[in-house]
Amino acid sequence: MRGKFITFEGGEGSGKSTHTAALAERLKAAGIDCILTREPGGSPGAEIIRHIILSGIAKPLGTETETILFAAARDDHVRVTIEPALDAGKWVICDRFIDSTRVYQGALGKVDMKLIRSLERVTVGPNMPDLTFLLDVPANIGLARAKTRRGTEKADRFESEAIEFHEDLRRAFLVLAERETKRIVTIDGRAPRDVVADRIWTAVEERLIGTVTPVAEAAAP
Ligand code: Z5A
Fold this sequence. Notes:
By secondary structure, the chain is α/β, with parallel strands linked by helices. It has a single domain (5-211), classed as Rossmann fold (3-Layer(aba) Sandwich). It is built from 9 helices and 5 strands. The chain has helices spanning 16-29, 44-55, 63-87, 98-108, 113-124, 139-150, 163-179, 193-207, 215-219, and strands at residues 5-10, 34-38, 91-95, 131-136, 184-188. The chain has a 5-stranded parallel sheet with strand order 2-3-1-4-5, sandwiched between helices. It starts with a strand and ends with a helix. It binds ligand Z5A. Ligand Z5A binds at residues 10, 12-18, 39-40, 70, 96, 100-101, 104-105, 145-146, 148-149, 156, 158-159, 189, 192-193, 196.
């Protein structure tokens, strides 16, 4: 049976890395084989493109070019990492995916949604997420968390945008979630870590676990 595909979205410091890792642990404990991956990146080719985008050297080329670079990274990531894992029956948990492009490049970067949707069709094809978590936190909280975690490291291409950009980003993610309530579950990321993790797990159990037999159970005599 094909694996399930779960993505996490949200602004900077909203807790995506924390909760992708926590969910992977819980799935493994429940006997479900899964892999953890991220965008941009997640395959050797896509990690090279990640470095180019996040260093900011592609910014002068414009938002369309950045969008095409994200799509090139996604194409490699889907073909090399995501699709083979799903086909092998593994669950895939991904830190950011198509909704980040729709929001960062589409809603905020003003790139034509027709281009974004066309690139999505080519790169993602039938590998759409089964479930997406939007971790929602006010921009000032997310940025403060990201800054504390980063320490003395330089802010990347997107972290260095103004606070208004991050507030618009939050609103755009919420609009997207309202439009796709079947796929996207919004979680209040301000809650304590354990509470957020429990809410995520409850949604996964309700929406996905009931539909599969854990690997360990299936293998039992
Ligand atoms: N991007 C794009 O524009 N278009 C696209 O299509 C894609 C991406 C795919 C990737 O950055 C950048 O690429 C991203 C969008 C753009 N913009 N930026 N910057 P990234 O992968 O390097 O970074 P990120 O995705 O923004 O994630 P992040 O800043 O690393 O944050 P996070 O993963 O959401 O949060 P975290 O690391 O789990 O948590 C941050 C800190 O908060 C950490 O110290 C935690 O311990 C703490 N934390 C977590 N949860 C809690 C709670 N509940 N309470 C208190 N503290 C907490």
